[in-house]
Amino acid sequence: MFAKPAWKKAERTKKEGHIVPDPTLEMDAPVTRQFLENLFTTLRDDIAALKQELAADVKDIRRNMGELEQRIDSLEWGSDNTDEELEDHKQEILALRDKTADLDYQLEDLENHLRRLGDPGLGQTSHPPGGIPIPASTGEVHLPGTEKKDQETTARERSRERAAILQQLQQRYSTSDLDND
Fold it and tell me: What are the coiled-coil residue ranges (predicted)?
């Protein structure tokens, strides 16, 4: 068959980071020598270019990692604040529920006081039309033909109505009148 080219026959050794052909190999043609020199020069240039690209990529990766760390830190800081805000909102809700319960109790007390005085209360007549009884409290009353509302919406409306009635009752009757009973 064909003989292997001279550059394939070379025993490769590593010397100072370069692969060099065995010095015992005889180079017959100056063309082969020139070819190998050009090949090594091209390889060195390619390796140098790859090193530069790799260094630029590593630099970009480091910059991106720094940005990512900053984003993570800001998200962690934001989640800590969100947890604190959530806890504050929960405390506010509990305080408002307690206040609503106190206002409900005061309103019920004032309604009972008005009943003892014989006053039917605000928004109620002493003789209701059609024989509909006056409810004992301002709780939810469903008359025929009315639509049933969402419980949460009804609870909000009831709280607003009770607060308005309580304010009107406090304006109508001073606390000194209530203490006399």
Answer: 33-99
